[in-house]
Specification:
The chain has helices at about 1-20, 30-50, 55-75, 80-95, 100-105, 115-120, 125-140, 150-165, 190, 195-225, 230-245, 245-255, 260-280, 285-310, 315-345, 350-355, 355-380. With about 375 residues, it is an all-alpha fold. It has a single domain, classed as MFS general substrate transporter like domains (Growth Hormone, Chain: A, Up-down Bundle). The longest helix is centred in the middle third of the chain and has 30 residues, at about 195-225. The radius of gyration is 20 Å and the shape is globular.
């Protein structure tokens, strides 16, 4: 899933720029993927609750393969709107795939949750190499249809995911029973009012939104500054590596220093990305900025997911995770949709300046939760 997404992130905005009737719509196809993820997150959670995670995961790969086929046909026919619609199917698969991290976290002891989440996201290390390089190798494989071969290749990636999921072993799924009371556990409002939930959601939501906003605009910005596609592929590859390579140690860092400290560092790295991007337009500036952006996202996303798992009981799992992912990918969809228009109309500096307030909100929310927890500990001791 991550390899196909890194390929899509490298190519989709450029394909959109080539085919869109209005260049401001260049990032619409990638935004549609995230809109589809957002709209599919809750139905995906409901289906997994009903039939179990493994069957639902395997079924969802069919959406991905169909989306890859539709995108290939769209590129061959230079049909921008069909290409955009292919993102709906790809997003549906990703909505299910985003629950891979929860599937891992929910079957281990509480102390191992952050490590389990990190272990799943390590797949992104391979994705950082496979996705952009696969795009580069296959972009001209079909004459007169740039990147059509790349989208054919993601069909193969989704098929590999289907086969791999066949080996997945999870605890036996409890058969769905309407009499089992779908509303068991605390009311959702009570869950989302917890300070931990608020900060977990806010940091994951804004952290992912900032990452998506800057990253989606990057290929367009590099194209505008006359950088080659191989340069763009290089930068995106390092960005994806930054997103996932820290997973080797993020779980250990969280266990050692605490989740809030690691999330705070993630917010600071986001500000470091903005600083690098504002200092220049060379390959080095893009490389440093996007790598810092990736590492910052890793700390915020793994930290936010870990914090979220501390806010619900087993019987509240599905609805809490569904609300979390629905909110996150609503933000990501908006960020992806607006990134292209802002980059096209106002330029790279405005894109970067625009995320600074969001990063400040992240940092302040973490400080607020830290002070709130210290106050609670003092009251308990008193």
């Amino acid at each position: 899933m991550m390899s196909s997404m890194s390929l899509l992130l490298t190519t989709t905005a450029l394909i959109g720029l080539e085919m869109a009737p209005d260049k401001a719509l260049a990032t619409l196809p990638i935004a549609v993927i995230f809109i589809s993820v957002m709209l599919s997150s809750i139905p995906a959670a409901m289906l997994m609750e009903r039939i179990g995670r493994k069957p639902a995961f395997m079924f969802s790969t069919l959406f991905g393969m169909a989306g890859g086929a539709m995108a290939t046909v769209a590129i061959l026919n230079q049909n921008f709107w069909l290409f955009t619609c292919s993102g709906i199917l790809i997003g549906m698969f990703n909505a299910f795939g985003n629950y891979f991290r929860f599937a891992a976290a929910d079957i281990v002891e509480p102390a191992l949750k952050s490590k389990a989440i990190s272990a799943v996201l390590l797949g992104g290390v391979v994705a950082a190499i496979v996705g952009p390089n696969l795009a580069n190798l296959t972009r001209e494989s079909i004459p007169d249809a740039m990147f059509a071969g790349s989208y054919m290749s993601i069909i193969v990636l989704y098929f590999i995911a289907l086969v791999t999921l066949g080996f997945l072993k999870l605890p036996q799924h409890k058969k769905f029973d309407k009499k089992d009371n779908a509303n068991k556990g605390r009311p959702l409002l009570e869950i989302v009012k917890q300070p931990k939930f608020i900060v977990a959601l806010l940091c994951a939501m804004l952290g992912y939104g900032v990452m998506s906003f800057v990253m989606t605009a990057t290929p367009l910005a590099m194209h505008a500054h006359d950088h080659s596609f191989s340069d763009t592929s290089f930068v995106i590859s390092w960005h994806v590596l930054g997103m996932y390579a820290p997973s080797f140690f993020t779980g250990h860092l969280i266990n050692r220093y605490g989740v809030l400290k690691i999330m705070f560092v993630g917010g600071l790295l986001g500000l470091g990305c903005v600083a690098a991007n504002l200092l220049g337009n060379s390959i080095t500036h893009y490389w440093i900025g996007l790598t810092l952006l990736g590492v910052g996202w890793n700390f915020l996303f793994i930290g936010g997911t870990t914090l979220l798992t501390e806010t619900y009981r087993p019987e509240e799992r599905s609805k809490t995770q569904a609300v979390n992912d629905f909110t996150i990918f609503t933000t990501v969809a908006i960020a992806s949709l607006t990134a292209g228009a802002l980059q096209y109309k106002f330029g790279w500096q405005v894109v970067n300046l625009g995320v600074i307030p969001l990063l400040i909100v992240i940092l302040l929310s973490i400080l607020w939760l830290g002070m709130n927890q210290r106050r609670e500990r003092l009251m308990t001791k008193g």
